[in-house]
């Protein structure tokens, strides 16, 4: 890629509330034009990080750069980023047009230019007819679109979106996810999006940063986060994950020999996804997704385990099984109906060695 | 049985109550048309002379003018003192906030006579003179609590994201206050204005204790009462009643409309407190 200034950069940012670190040494670079999602459970620091970038939450230490400019000590109204709030925060006493034009007005743009900009924004959100209404007369989805237009209108370096779809019902949320993504693509704006909803993060983002306890656990593409989680927490937060205790017996450049419930298996060394590279003899955790576990005759080289079915739920096109291995580990399986287990519930199940992820044992979900 | 009560008894009860509320006022309004020097039933001949005469009565119009001045001055004082106090209280939570509100609201619970006497002594000892300014000062003391409570209710319903959003879009503190906070408070400010005006206009006790030789309207009426009722009193009272009811209904409608207009916004942010 060509040498470009990142839209946003945080360097060793720490935000303390008393003895608690809401943001714990976060260094994050958001390249221009990227849709990045900060994903994590409530209290993981994702919203605080976003508010720190916006300037509402002064950092304890560290540096925040926006568009190559140090804004660490600047108040919110001087930072070239705009926020979209979960509760929309539209000004109730102003028309939709005045709301959208507010940022441009603050930048002292000439009036005709503001009007043109507002028209363009109303077209962008496909609500050209609501300009003269008040926010109170709009539906939730319309309000969120107007909030988006208002934040985009002053042409900020980056948009910061704080769970903007959280107050909407599921159907509308999915509709707006698509719309948000397409607006991001067509405008080429940098979006930093905060959510606790993994599906939302997965479906919209170019990059996902999974956060926990004020730190970024993993920053990668949605596909990589799902297939190669760096920690058991990430594995469990992004989709369902089976975590099987194991031991690393041998390790060379290409392969790892692991021991699971008394049996040895060979796994490609590239499946070691944890950033703390384990060495031979270490306890490790084997992660496998429920849909990657299969029943029946195991092909050559597959990892096989024996267990008992504890419960099963028919889900139409799929069947969900809860099993327990001989070693006492609970395994979730999602598979197509058919090939039902024996009456006594004993089954063999297997998975491909390249579908697992080897995680460090010390990190718990 | 219950249904029968619901269909007949409750409406009957309601209308009896309404009659009890409004009958005296209706009698008063009718008396103003009585062609006689005395207030009595039945009314044998009707005239509009009383209404005409009170409208041209200099004493009456002078007292109404005094009352209006007092109301405007005291309301302005109440708003100027009360608004910053509401902002100050809004910054606190919990016990401190409760304590502050208790201190501010206290004047509303002091018996009016006691408050009036204390104010009169205060004014006398500090060399202020009685008169319009003294009365206005007395009224302002009693209107501040209402201003604070009304504004505080409205402020509580305001999402902090609203001011954050404005700052985020480039507004400094000054612009945030004048473009966002004040307009948001406008319905409450208007409501407080109307309420303080009416409160001041109808006050008798404070005006009586603190006033000088220019009586306010209620004080003048009291003075006239000593010479007995005449239909002119009924006429002027009716006129005042009509004007205050009209203003009151307008204020109520205005603030209600604003509330409805904001309702969606308020529910959307999960906050059902509004002013």
UniProtKB/TrEMBL annotation, chain B:
Keywords: Cell membrane, Membrane, Transmembrane, Transmembrane helix, Transport. It is a multi-pass membrane protein. One of its GO terms (molecular function) is metal ion transmembrane transporter activity. It comes from the Bacteria. The keyword Transport applies. Gene3D superfamilies: MetI-like. Belongs to the binding-protein-dependent transport system permease family. CysTW subfamily. This is ABC transporter permease. It comes from Pelagibacterium lacus.
